[in-house]
Design a protein that fits this description.
Blueprint: E1 7-10, H1 22-29, E2 43-47, E3 54-61, E4 64-71, H2 93-119, H3 125-135, H4 148-157, H5 160-168, H6 182-191, H7 193-202, H8 212-215, H9 220-223, H10 226-244, H11 248-260, H12 262-288, H13 292-295, H14 298-301, H15 307-315
Parallel strand pairs: 1-4
Antiparallel strand pairs: 2-3, 3-4
Helix pairs in contact: 2-7, 4-10, 4-12, 5-6, 5-12, 6-7, 10-15, 11-12
Length: 332
């Protein structure tokens, strides 16, 4: 064979000894063109087609193989060079940040649970039970008038699970985790933010894609409805107006309840937590629907408790206009 004892010479490297095995030399250079088995040919030149900006000239001399490489815009000076056998390094900072956020949220949830069960005021347990029965209409008209601010907070707490359901389904679901969001949303009807925080810890974006057929089925057809968002906003505005019309004596009384009652103290903290986490989920939903550039002015409004996120739910674009294009925001 012609190349059996040939020396391999590169324009960029020194001549290799001819004692190298021919098979190893050829595989190292990844030579694909076949070499004619002609004993009379003394010189053969081959110009290979450019591939990825590289052109190669193979010149075969009798007894030697010379390879000349010509690079045309093939590599920038700042591009990294990966040597043979060197493993490819992948940056993993995003996952580390996600784990850091999850750990911080878990610590926050644990601290809240410890505070709720051990440190929160609990001076009036019997009165708390009476308030719960009155708010659930389990007590008849006994002549006692409930605090107007307390009634407002109670009823708006019943709307928060609906608002979070509209934010977390579908753009708050996890495609990288098998943990569904709906059990936490159901538990939030009773536990509020204390039930949602464990899901925030386990949440791993991005959300799964949504088919057009899924938009017409429960629960997306209900949660994506502008009518549902409008009812939530109208109900929230009515409750806020009702609380705003309360007298100064009602607000002072509510503050006293806050310092004495575990029920009212824990519920007030729950309202604060739900209001604090809502802007992030508004931002997540906004970026998932490719709406941040046009609707970024709604993000500052989302800090207004309940009314800001509810207003966003009315103005956000429908998922049907952006099918299968969800790309949520990674927490930094």
């Amino acid at each position: 064979m012609l190349l059996a004892n040939a020396n391999l010479i590169s324009c960029n490297f020194s001549t290799f000894p001819s004692s190298l095995p021919p098979k190893t030399s050829l595989q190292t250079q990844n030579l694909k063109p076949r070499i004619p088995h002609s004993r009379t040919a003394s010189k053969v030149s081959t110009f290979s087609k450019p591939h990825n900006g590289k052109a190669s000239i193979f010149t075969f001399h009798k007894g030697h193989l010379q390879i000349c490489h010509s690079t045309l815009n093939s590599q920038k000076p700042e591009d990294p060079v990966l040597n043979e056998g060197e493993p490819l390094k992948v940056e993993n900072g995003g996952d580390e940040k996600n784990w850091t956020t999850s750990i911080l949220l878990f610590l926050l949830w644990g601290a809240l649970m410890f505070y709720v069960f051990t440190l929160s005021p609990n001076q009036t347990p019997s009165r708390d039970m009476y308030f719960v029965k009155k708010l659930l209409n389990l007590k008849g008209d006994d002549g006692f008038t409930m605090n107007q601010v307390l009634v407002s907070v109670w009823y708006i707490m019943g709307l928060w699970p609906l608002l979070y359901s509209m934010l977390l389904i579908p753009t708050g679901r996890s495609s990288k985790s098998s943990i569904p969001v709906w059990p936490f949303l159901i538990l939030s009807c009773f536990g509020g933010a204390y039930a949602l925080l464990p899901y925030f810890v386990l949440w791993k974006p991005p959300p799964p894609t949504v088919d057009e057929s899924e938009l017409g089925r429960w629960p997306l057809n209900f949660l994506e409805s502008k009518l549902t968002a409008g009812i939530a906003l109208a109900a929230g505005m009515g409750i806020v107006i009702y609380a705003g019309l309360a007298s100064g004596a009602d607000w002072k009384e509510y503050y006293q309840y806050f310092n004495e009652s575990k029920f009212i103290h824990v519920m007030s903290l729950d309202f604060t937590l739900l209001s604090a986490f809502a802007p992030f989920w508004v931002y997540n939903d906004m970026t998932s629907r490719k709406r941040f550039d046009k609707g970024s002015w709604l993000l500052p409004l989302s800090v207004v408790p309940f009314l800001g996120p509810a207003l966003y739910l009315i103005l956000r674009p429908s998922l049907s206009t952006k099918p299968n294009s969800l790309s949520p925001a990674e927490p930094e």
